[in-house]
Amino acid sequence: MRTCNTAILRHLTAFLSVLALALALGAGGAWAATSDEGSEAPKVSTADHSKFKELKGPFGTGPEVTRACLQCHTEASKQLHKTKHWTWSVVNPTNGEQLGKRNIINNFCGSVVSNEARCTSCHIGYGWKDGKFDFNSEANVDCLVCHDTTGGYRKFPAGAGHPAYVPTEWPVGSGRMMQPPDLAKVAQNVGPTSRRNCGTCHFLGGGGNAIKHGDLDLSLIEPGRYLDIHMSPERLNFTCSSCHSGDAHAVQGSRYTTIAKDTSGIDIPGRTDGTRATCESCHGMEPHPASSNSKLNEHTDKIACATCHVPRFARGGYNTKMWWDWSTAGRLDENGQPLKIRNGKGLEVYSGMKGDFAWGEHVIPEYRWFNGTADYTLFGDTVDGSEIVSINKYGGGPDDPDSRIWPFKVMRGKQPYDKGLQTLAVVHTFGKDDSAYWRNYDWDKALQAGMAAVGATYSGEMGFVETEMAWPITHMVAPKDDAVTCEECHSRNGRLEGIEGVYMPGRDRTGWLDFLGWAAALLALLAVLGHGAARYYAHTKRS
Amino acid sequence: MEATRIYIFKRFERFWHWAQAALIIVMGVTGFEIHGTYSLLGYESAQEVHTTAAWLLIGLWVFAIFWHFTTGEWRQYIPTVDKLMAMLRYYLTGIFSDAPHPFRPTTLTKHNPLQRLAYLFVKLIINPAIWISGLLYLYYSAWPALGLDGLSLAAVAFVHTVAAFLMLLFFVVHVYFATTGHTPTSHIKAMITGYEEV
Ligand code: HEM
Questions:
Q1: Domains parsed from chain B with CATH numbers
Q2: Between A487, A528, A542, which is nearest B176 by CB?
Q3: Tally of domains in chain A
């Protein structure tokens, strides 16, 4: 509540000072000369895209814009075709399994397959609406969603990656219309990616703001320094790509293939591995200055940076989803519409479309050993409903030199599985057809269609299984004064209580030694006090 | 009875004793906070104070060892059984009946045979155990470089904690025995002024 008020206050003061400045400048007649300069970084590009005749427009569709881009940036689409942003597919380096958004089943919305038109509103392409999408099409790469600087470009949520080209109602039945973007204006104002560009998808994962990651949400578009020391315009004003950089559109940093410990040190071009996305690539393995407690640098071999420097996630004023129980979905109101229940804070705790939710804000992460690898429970892997399924079991342990203790958001919930086939289910949730769950609220039909889309035949018997999915926490890096303090871990019942394989002073001890030690000290004390009392008594009796 | 005063503890010895006392108390208090027994300064401050005090104590010990050998004072700790039983009998009975103290300290033999044994135990067992385990503990991160990979931190911490408990035990008994001189305060005065009334 307090942070909310101070945020409002901060915005108010900022607004008032801008107003005062505007008035002063306006009076001096200098407005026109300075209007383009704000807190924005100076423009570094040597090209002004508004001067290019290719971008004059008008453009009818997204792909038309892309064709114009490709006239100069001839290799751009070919570069993007090689990236995860395009393929949504990753090979697990440890065991060869096929990962990526396209292949996994998570415990939020389930799976992309059979629901493409909805999910691919976060794909960097146009037109991936079913299994027949052409991944070799250059014109279907969406340049604008990443390079728009006007803030006016948005993909239509159910448009298979296209923006709305005519005013379209969204959400369906709400009466609210989404306006088509001015494609020519957007095209003429392209620029480097910003926090807002990446956030269009990455802050809204799981179906809305803040739902999925916990350390990525809309508060990072203009974060205060308390929220993120690197991205805050009050400090370094980093964009996502300041760290997630890379050549040829290959963005670095991944949950699927994580560098859990980057011992190659501070990255010097030509000398090191060239990664930018780890903390260590700028800070090295000895990040704390010589003036600080020397024990701090001795932690970096076993403790990931974020473990101390991201004390909590969902710190920006938005709640993140912690629990999603699909098994209760399907309750409709008297008009046949899915029921919606909000709690006192206005958070949706039940949705007829999706089931029960629990939310969390300022959440203390869970800590686990992590070496950067993960073993996924994919479609076809045995799930018999007898135990909690780990969707991504992270690898590593105390004896593995590549492992460190990492913070995680652990998402938990219940989701459909096929009892007969003993596998997590692919569910057809979205679509205009009769079998989509959000049409008829009939699980059997939805599973039949979903499983068919991956070439399987639904056994006819489904149930709900409890699952958990771990999300490494790396963003929302707090100022150093807010870092986790020593005693939050070096104490009994501290944050690292469940971590095995290391001796931690303050947390660990040998119980019987303590008992023996204190008992001996107490006995010694009683003995000398008794001796002293006897001496005193003998002395007073005599005199 | 007219008390005789003899000069027992030289200036360095007295300084060494009280500085060591203060440091050991500080180390005990901060050490058991690090151990998780209570929360007083906060873990980080406790750890910082403990480490600083450790270096001071090590420095002091190095000086003291040097002093003991150059002055020959180390002989004060050579164990002896002479009057040992007499001392034991005194603490068990004589002290209650105002019997005369069986031992008279002199400049050449400052400590009674029980003291000799106790201090020798501190110097040969407790101190080295605390010192060696403490330094290993402190340089935990350098073990691989020192070829000490095989060590376990839990074991080092265990030894350190055992030694800390022994030190605590010594401390309790030692403070009490400081009151068992010719008069209850004569030992203590001796350690302050250097002169003991005998
Ligand atoms: C040469 C002297 C000493 C050194 C170098 C030393 C060093 C250390 C170190 C490095 C630690 C671990 C804390 C950390 O991670 O920084 C520690 C813990 C501790 N120290 Fe000392 N220390 C010394 C003397 C003492 C003394 C004189 C006492 C008690 C009177 C003591 C009692 C303890 C205790 C109880 C712990 C906690 C052990 C545990 O729970 O693991 N230390 N010491």
A1: 15-197 (1.20.950.20)
A2: A528
A3: 2
